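# nightly structure sweep
# worker-07 picked up a monomer target from the shared queue
# config: single-sequence mode, recycle default, output format = structure tokens
# input follows
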Amino acid sequence: MTHLYRSVFIFFLCLANMASLPLAAQTVDHPLRPPQTGSPQATLQSFVNAMDEVYVIATGDGARGSDTVLPLRRAAATIDMSAFPAEIRRSQSIEMALMLDEVLDRIGLPDLSTVPSAASELPEKWRIPNTPITISLIDEGPRSGEYLFTSQTAQNIREYYESVRDLPYSNATTPGLYTAYLTTPGPGIALRWSERLPEWSKRTAFDQTYWQWTALFVIALLIVLQFVPILRVSRSVAGAETENQERARRRRQFMTLLGALVLTIAAAWFVDEIVNLTGDTQITVAYALALLRFVLLGWIVIVAGNLCVDLVSWVRGLEQNSAGVLLLTVVSWIVVGLFLFALIVAAAQRFGFPAYSVVTGLGVGGIAIGLGAQALVRDILSGVFFLMDDAFRKGEYVKVGDAMGNVEKISIRSMQLRHHLGAVHTIPYGQIAQVTNFSRDWVIVQLSFTVPYETDPKLIKGKFKEIGEDMMADPAFAESFIEPFKSQGVFDFDDVGMVVRGKFMTKPGEQFTIRAELQARVKAAFDEAGINFARKEVRVAMPDVESATGQSNSEQRAAVAAASASEPSKS
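# output follows
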């Protein structure tokens, strides 16, 4: 694998050196001078002058390709390229100018004195005699008021070139520029240097040289291979076992995607500036790399949103799947969605689709999705407001409708309650009308005991106080209390005794353990003090029976048993 990378590196280094030979640069006067486009004559003359300048520079012994870039762009500036998508407009404009030059070199230029100029009445458009090549006035846009070769001419120039490519050159022309541009690497044209290249380097297949196809294959291989680490690290994020491990792997995923984006941008530059593909092959490769670039950008935006959630939750000390983290997730989804929307609009414009059509299409699609997923949207929006209100948190004991249990899971659309018997209730947020939370701040528990009427309430109050003080002093329970156990006095009288009540305040979740302990200690204290718990009793009053009646003991016991049997049974 090391030898492969080394060979690829040497191959690209050679191409880069070929594209920028260290030869003397040509002096270019007024490099920012725009072409004169105030009339059809001025436009045609500017184009011819620019191509003549390219030919003079390209045929020089010390010329290098980059020296011809400025006059080539000046010639291309006389062509209306507005019909071409922005992604390929710049690279295609030079190729259009060279093919237009090839066509004019073969059919011959008209007498410039016959071309409408600023000194005469200017028409809306003018066509080169006996050709469909037209120069027209631009009515709108940033180049309004200029005469340019029409966009229709630019779109059809390849067809025109194919029709005349086998014709001989006319006199006073600039021959061989387009052929040199096709077969040499790097921007611009170095005609003398191109002529010295070996014949094998000029052989073509589908309008590209063999070395260009080789370079394109190597680049495509690198682009495909970059997805191996991307997919590997993405799977590792999904398989993370701990929260910290997931965050670390997500950071690695972000850096891997960022590296892939840099490689894709570098590949696009290398193909355009060094390999110098042309024609339909260049358009296809440019679109493919641009699409990949936007996909990687969208992926990076999504991962960056997750990283922001990780960072904020780590700084704030929030637990994974907590309400705060989920609320941050929803906010990040909204922000990421806006970024992705802007990215889609930008990509559409780069590919030649009007922004308004993209926005309209997305709007119609959003309405369709919204109508088809009303329940889902309602659940998500309801969940956002529940999370903002902090109505419940993971681990809390709540009641939602008829369901009760501990909050086991909080998602974007629903919550899960674990009943104490093990059942799990999944409740969509949109169906929640009321939430009762039993786990917030504090809990007051009241305990009632029924004792006989003759029991002294003051004695019971003293016992409750002793029990409360003992439990507050017990390390196993002291931290759970907010207020100690104390007596509330006699609460009620019923048919078997008087009801005394005590209460205590504790932290949520601790009340069940403390209540069980308190009941055991109250029982022990009552037993020690000789206080009985009241219970229902049945008393049977028997009439006095004189021994003279002659009833035996067995008869008396039978009478008692009969009286007891007459009492209604308890169920």
